[in-house]
Design goal:
Elements: H1 9-25, H2 30-48, H3 51-68
Organism: Alteromonas genovensis
InterPro entries: UPF0352, YejL_sf
Pfam families: DUF1414
Amino acid sequence: MPQNSRYSNDEFEALMNKVILTLEESGANRDLSLMVLGNVITHILNTQVKAENREAMASQFADVLKKSVKA
């Protein structure tokens, strides 16, 4: 998903693979996985982003997500 990042590809891939492996090991189906990931994103926005910036950042995230899944 990230295009230009301050994080290395190795760092990104390692963390992403841990998240995916955790979901798979838990037997989480698509709906549960999306619910969990959505709640994680909400938690990150609520705890790491100033209140006045949350809505804009959520919108930006949603736009990038939509672009990444276009066929």
